[in-house]
Specification:
The complex is a heterodimer. In chain A, about 50% of the residues lie in helices and about 0% in strands. The termini of chain A are far apart. Chain A has a domain of about 100 residues: Cytochrome c-like domain (Cytochrome Bc1 Complex, Chain D, domain 2, Orthogonal Bundle), CATH 1.10.760.10. By secondary structure, chain A is mostly helical. In chain A, helix 2 packs across helix 6. By secondary structure, chain B is mostly helical. Helix content of chain B is about 40%, strand content about 5%. Chain B is built from 27 helices and 8 strands. In chain B, strand 7 and strand 8 form a beta hairpin. The chains are: A mainly alpha, B mainly alpha. At the A-B interface, helix 1, helix 2, helix 5 and helix 6 of A face helix 1, helix 2, helix 20 and strand 8 of B.
Chain lengths: ~150, ~650
């Protein structure tokens, strides 16, 4: 491209204008640089029905726990359900964080699945494997984990 | 010339640099895209994990769910959905909770809503202009289950299930169209003028829950004047349905002898207890919840009405689920005398005597206008009046309503459908004072549940094969003498048989396979609770031997299944083996009592050998949920041998 020398005083202005137009067009075309990625807000603020339970599994687990476990282990897991009075040995206190943290999830699943007799404990704890699905037992375990953490 | 060239070179160099910078913007912008940064971060994150996780190839990912007509790019950033190792990491990489549906089959937005094809956080959650379905907050999540699951009890969706139950109980369909719900029975108002006391009616209309805390009747927030006019209007309706008339009271009840009266009250108090009236009726808030509170019923209803109604409930209130007890005339008089002596609201009666009421001259016209305005005939029958046409908005597709169609008034709430519905259900007249919807005084939890159930009505096109429908309504309707008895005793008010009735009490469809005839006959005479922990609820209906025979003979022919019959050989060895299984292997005593030892979660098993049939016990032990899906009894996966031994042991307890 051959450019004639710019003589007229207005030529400089024209070029500046031209350049700034190109820049502007390019900028508009690109739409500016995106802002930094936003982090998804945690759903823990949603406390209306969920209380302090943050995950789906825990909420499902609570529902199942209340139906199947609370009669002996108590609503809050302290081993003081209404039926605990009749049992010897007494139901385990599930809020005992020292005891519960020593058990991994797999062990808890096994205990719920096979009952006391499956893990050399009292047969008074029934085996739930035939009643509950594997998924449901996992829900319960994730709820059990909230019982002592919340203390 | 040279001088000019020098200047030009500088311009040229400057403009070239500007061009270069400008040209770099686009690739830079592309490099720093939100989703790309997320993918780089994901690849860094998984390197620190102890487990090996496959890194992601950078690029847009999407799920195309053809059958649901959805394209979801959420998986571009939500990279760990199916990766169990990522349970504890931060969003958007965390594992999806275990659910029954595979994300690759159903996609994301069909449940979560939001804008599927978007690739930035802000746009994908849909909190942008002109996008009416932003992502659901967790508390409303279960609404999406309702798109496909039309059954009443949806597995793993307790909030939705509760919401549907409340919509049914609150009779929302009296004013709104809602698919899948039918109007529930409510009392007829014909004859109300011969039944209730006017002062009571005014109080009731102003605040029904003050009289019966669990009533289904909502509060229409009437002014004193409105309540008085409506009460005057209603009190003019003195004839009962089907021209039923009140019989005169028996002599014993009108007798003035103090001693006789006392004896009568005592008899009534005994029968009142034996009939277990409080199984259904609370007294000042304590007792059942099915029927109205009797705490101050003597100040509400006239003596003549009480006497006649208890005698033959269905004559004055067709369709009511109150049994007709087989009381003698004296017993009936006794119960009424007992009610008169106990269940009185002295305060109301004192207040009533102090105020002289002068009805508004135009009370009838004004009352009728109020009756129509609030669509009272949506629930109650009165002189054959029709329910108002299109009272409340149609709620069939409320979940997908466009925001511009909704008037948020000056409420200042977040402008989304869920927050609109939640606010409306909690406080029905908040958006405008001229609204007519009554207040149900729902708790936060209940309002949330109803909102969830309503939000599910989206009208979104879902392929038929994905939908789950409720079981069709049972058409079981026993005929003949048995049918008449079942109707007269309102058995379906508590028991279910072949899918018809309520589940307040046990399902009787297989009762004759389950229990021995002699036991059933004895139970009709002296009913009791099988579980030590439950209050006794089955009423003594004072049936005659002939009536019991009719009931039992029909049950023996119809309420059974031949497949449940089984001979169980019961020798000493087997019984001993069963005993060991009962106490030592399966720990049944944790929940069941024998000779007062053991838990009280399940029924006591003393004398179970005189109550149940061996075939039933065997099949029940093998799979309890086959008979009662909601039963919490564990399924111990017994072998036939074990189940037979346990049955032999249990049947030896006579």
């Amino acid at each position: 491209m051959i450019i004639e020398p710019l003589r007229s005083p207005g030529a400089k202005l024209v070029m500046v204008r031209l350049l700034s137009m190109v820049v502007a067009i390019l900028f508009i075309g690109c739409g500016g640089v995106d802002p930094a990625p936003q982090r998804a807000p945690s759903h823990q603020q949603d406390t209306l029905s969920t209380g302090t339970l943050s995950s789906y599994e825990q909420r499902q687990g609570k529902h199942l726990y209340t139906k199947y476990c609370a009669v002996c282990h108590g609503e809050e897991g302290k081993g003081d359900g209404f039926n605990a009075f009749n049992l010897d040995p007494k139901p385990r206190d599930l809020t005992d964080s020292k005891y519960m943290t020593a058990l991994n999830d797999e062990r808890l699943i096994e205990t719920i699945n096979e009952g006391g007799r499956g893990v050399n404990k009292s047969p008074l704890m029934p085996s739930w494997g035939g009643r509950l699905t594997e998924e449901e037992i996992r829900y319960i375990v994730s709820y059990l984990r909230t019982l002592f953490r919340s203390r | 010339m040279k001088k000019h060239m020098g200047k030009l070179r500088i311009y040229f160099a400057a403009s070239s640099i500007v061009f270069l910078v400008v040209l770099a913007i686009s690739p830079l912008k592309d490099f720093f895209r939100e989703w790309k940064l997320n993918q780089y971060e994901y690849n860094n994150l998984i390197k620190e994990l102890p487990q090996r996780v496959r890194p992601v190839e950078v690029g847009i990912k999407q799920l195309w769910i053809q059958k649901l007509d959805r394209i979801d790019r959420c998986v571009t950033c939500h990279l760990g959905l199916k990766e169990p190792a990522l349970k504890q990491v931060r969003q958007p990489f965390r594992t999806h909770p275990l659910i029954d549906h595979d994300v690759e089959e159903f996609g994301c937005t069909v449940c979560h809503e939001g804008q599927g094809p978007a690739t930035t956080y802000k746009e994908s959650v849909g909190k942008v202009k002109y996008w009416d379905q932003p992502i659901f907050p967790t508390k409303f999540m279960e609404a999406s289950c309702a798109k496909c699951h039309k059954e009443r009890v949806v597995p793993h969706a307790p909030t939705l299930t509760l919401g549907r139950k409340l919509i049914e109980e609150a009779n929302c369909v009296a004013c709104h169209n809602i698919e899948g719900f039918q109007k529930q029975w409510t009392p007829s108002l014909d004859g109300i003028g011969s039944k209730v006391n006017r002062t009571w009616l005014v109080n009731w209309l102003k605040n029904p829950k003050a009289y019966f805390a669990k009533t289904r009747m909502p509060n229409f927030l009437l002014s004193d004047e409105e309540a008085n006019i409506l009460a005057d209007f209603l009190m003019t309706f003195k004839t009962f349905p089907n021209e039923a008339t009140l019989d005169g009271l028996p002599m014993v009840l009108t007798s003035r002898s103090e001693a006789q009266r006392e004896k009568l009250v005592e008899l009534g108090s005994t029968r009142f207890r034996e009939a277990r009236c409080i199984s259904c009726h609370p007294i000042n808030g304590k007792g059942g919840y099915v029927a109205t509170d009797l705490g101050t019923v003597a100040s509400k209803a006239s003596v003549r009405w009480l006497y006649n109604y208890i005698k033959t409930p269905k004559r004055f209130q067709p369709g009511v689920e109150m049994p007709r007890y087989r009381f003698s005339e004296t017993e009936l008089a006794g119960i009424v005398a007992y009610i008169q002596s106990e269940f009185v609201d002295y305060e109301m009666e004192r207040a009533e005597s102090e105020v002289a009421h002068k009805p508004d001259p135009a009370y009838y016209e004004k009352g009728l206008a109020l009756f129509k305005k609030y669509n009272c005939s949506g629930c109650h029958e009165l002189a054959g009046m029709k329910k108002a046409e299109e009272m409340g908005p149609d709620l069939t597709f409320i979940g997908s309503k466009k925001l511009y169609e909704i008037d948020f008034g000056k409420s200042g709430i977040e402008q989304t459908i869920p927050s609109y519905l939640l606010t409306k259900v909690k406080d029905p007249r908040v958006f405008s004072a001229s609204m007519k919807m009554p207040s149900y005084e729902f708790t936060d939890e209940e309002a949330q549940a109803i909102t969830v159930a309503l939000l599910g009505n989206t009208g979104e096109r879902i392929p038929e094969e994905l939908k789950v429908y409720p079981k069709p309504r049972s058409t079981y309707s026993p005929q003949g003498e048995f049918g008449k008895l079942v109707d007269d005793l309102a058995c379906f008010g508590c028991h279910t048989v072949f899918g018809r009735g309520r589940l307040i009490a046990t399902d009787l469809s297989l009762e004759a396979s389950q229990a021995q005839r002699k036991w059933i006959e004895g139970y009709f005479k002296v009913p009791y609770s099988l579980r030590p922990i439950l209050t006794e609820r089955m009423p003594n209906l004072f049936l005659s031997d002939a009536e019991i025979r009719v009931l039992v003979e029909y049950m023996e022919k119809v309420f059974l299944a031949d497949s449940l019959e089984r001979e169980i050989r019961a020798d000493q060895d087997r019984i001993a083996k069963g005993k060991i299984l009962y106490y030592e292997k399966y720990g049944c005593q944790a929940c069941h009592q024998i000779n007062l030892k053991g838990g009280y979660v399940g029924p006591a098993l003393d004398k179970v050998g005189s109550r149940l049939k061996p075939g039933w016990v065997f099949h029940w032990l093998k799979n309890p949920q086959a008979f009662k899906p909601e039963s919490i009894e564990p399924n111990n996966k017994l072998t036939n041998d074990e189940a037979e031994a346990l049955t032999a042991f249990l049947m030896s307890l006579k």
